[in-house]
């Protein structure tokens, strides 16, 4: 039985004021039957970790460098995230792949860095609209998954988020059949590569315009173990409604 996960990605949103939303969330979930994760901007991770201590809400980073230390101005290592109180890190979000030219090979190196630091890596994949229109979604996802996951990935260290790029922040979502098709495909690829135990144990999140109104039907879809949520994770009330749809 895979533990469900509701993960929020605040992206480049939030200064100290945003901690009031986190406080509301932690007060609402002193404990929970599902895993809950908030990934605030790096500047808030240590304060968010303190605020979330003793609640069911875990804190994560939105990216990490593949190296432990070094001359990488502006970057943050997985160890630094861990030191600031993070337990998870998002790796290979499409905004990192597109805005920063991150390749799947680099993402695999970042995932290994996350494992070495004791962080759970939320590894993202997803197709652009043109890829879907060309009928190449599964081929594209298969390649991204194959190249972005280290051989050492397992169910304790790795979560995969399927996020169609055209659904992120647009209000558009795939049909439930399209979500199921991709999630079932990813599950089969994982089992093929890692075997039944690990392949069936790795959690698969859907991401892309998840909101309170569509969360329940998405969560009822085949091989969907939760969601990676952007915009609707910024307000505690919205994110709580999504968490409640997962329970
Ligand atoms: C995301 O950024 O991972 C995301 C899914 O964003 P949104 O929920 O706003 O579409």
Automatic annotation (TrEMBL):
GO terms for biological process: gluconeogenesis; glyceraldehyde-3-phosphate biosynthetic process; glycerol catabolic process; glycolytic process. The keyword Cytoplasm applies. Keywords: Cytoplasm, Gluconeogenesis, Glycolysis, Isomerase. It comes from the Bacteria. Its EC number is 5.3.1.1. The active site is at 93 (electrophile), 163 (proton acceptor). InterPro entries: Aldolase_TIM, TIM_sf, TrioseP_Isoase_bac/euk, Triosephosphate_isomerase, Triosephosphate_isomerase_AS. Homodimer. This is Triosephosphate isomerase.
């Amino acid at each position: 039985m895979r533990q469900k996960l509701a993960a929020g990605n605040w992206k480049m949103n939030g200064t100290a004021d945003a901690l009031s939303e986190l406080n509301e969330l932690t007060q609402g979930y002193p404990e929970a039957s599902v895993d809950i994760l908030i990934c605030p901007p790096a500047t808030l991770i240590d304060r968010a970790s303190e605020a979330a201590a003793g609640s069911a809400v875990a804190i994560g980073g939105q990216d990490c460098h593949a190296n432990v230390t070094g001359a990488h101005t502006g970057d943050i290592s997985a160890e630094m995230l861990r030191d600031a109180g993070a337990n998870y890190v998002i790796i290979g979000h499409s905004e990192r792949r597109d805005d920063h030219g991150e390749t799947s090979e680099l993402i695999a190196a970042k995932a290994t860095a996350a494992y070495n630091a004791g962080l759970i890596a939320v590894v993202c994949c997803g197709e652009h609209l043109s890829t879907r229109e060309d009928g190449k979604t599964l081929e594209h996802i298969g390649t991204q998954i194959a190249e972005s996951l280290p051989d050492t990935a397992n169910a304790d260290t790795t979560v995969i988020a399927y996020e169609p790029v055209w659904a992120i922040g647009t209000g558009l979502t795939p049909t439930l059949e399209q979500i199921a098709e991709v999630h079932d495909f990813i599950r089969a690829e994982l089992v093929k590569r890692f075997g039944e135990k690990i392949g069936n144990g790795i959690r698969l999140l859907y991401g892309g315009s998840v909101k309170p109104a569509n969360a329940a039907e998405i969560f009822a879809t085949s091989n969907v173990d939760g969601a990676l949520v952007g915009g609707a994770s910024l307000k505690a009330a919205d994110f709580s409604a999504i968490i409640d749809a997962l329970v």
